[in-house]
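Data deposition worksheet. Section B asks for the primary sequence of the deposited chain exactly as it was used as input, without tags or linkers unless they were present during the calculation. Section C holds the resulting structure in token form. Section D is free text for depositor observations; keep each observation to a single sentence. Incomplete worksheets are returned to the depositor.
Section A, Depositor: J.P.
Section B:
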Amino acid sequence: MAPHRLTVQQARRIALRAQLLDARRPVDLVHLVEDLTYLAVDPTSAVAPAVDLVAWSRLGNEYWIGAVDDAITDRMLFQLRGTVRSMGDLPLYLEQMAQWPQNETMRQWLTDNAEFEREVLALVEAEGPVLAKDVPDTARVPYTWGAEGWSSRRSVAEMLEALNMQGKLAMVGRKGRQRLWDLAERVYPQVEAVPLEEALRERVDRRLAAEGIARKRTQGRSGDGAWWVDLPGEVVQVEGCDGEWRVDPELLDHADDDFEPRTALLSPFDALVADRPRLLDLFDYEYTLEMYKPKGKRRWGYFALPILHGERFVGKLDARADRKEGVLHVFAVHEDLPFDGATTDAVHAEVEQLAAWLGLGRVDYARSG
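Section C:
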């Protein structure tokens, strides 16, 4: 059969509906995470941490900062490496946890530090939940990384992460910005693991539903356990985009439904912008997170937020939350194309909503330019 053909507008609408970035709002945080399949974790808080900013972009000001951590504490969500997922999805990851790691270097490091692992688990069992700083570093073979093999306290952090990936430890909340760890058997519900092959099939099906449209072969996400993933779905061609795409069948059936757009400020770690080639192909939008670049080489700013307006990305917001002064500093609103009056008003209104959500009393555009 010949592949379906979509206009760029139809493809964009499919992607935006899948990511819950049309005028609809998800009903609550847990349903949001289930629909998106995960929230990315990154502690950078120039504006707000990634999990909070991604959730706010969908839920609006009904969402409060820290609600994700609250849901983890309440056992509704769980954290796995760099992602937060619904506790209802835990059975899809248990067998992967049991087989982790596949990497031989990590396997050897854990073997060399078997006594260290036993000591960590015994400490958590006796005193948990614990912070990383509560765990003595008794690694027989230190975990080293970087050009000079720097390892200060890295062995403790890596062991805690490894035990989390193996399903032996679970994050149960935070104390300040530090994670609290407890034995997974005291945190996770007693559920039967879905066999790995079946779990992987269901996870890729749900990933396509969450993205709407993607290339068949796409990069794996943190926690997936694979560098590359082959997606199922209907084969489509997109006007003006070379090659084949895959679309979630249910969303394809609604490609021509009425679309209610809105304006949104997105986290640099948002799933909609995570696949940069897809972003450029479908939305003709170039974006790079520049926090790792020297200041003089940045075009858009340290933590510029992608600006979505309707079905298009229209620019980047260079801003920083100053919680001490109670101000959202806006250094620049970079316009990919000149804004008309309606676009300017909509973007400024969203900036005001962002400041209100952050609990900041005002927005300062004085330093923008």
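Section D:
The chain is about 35% helix and 20% strand.
The first strand starts at residue 4 and ends at 6.
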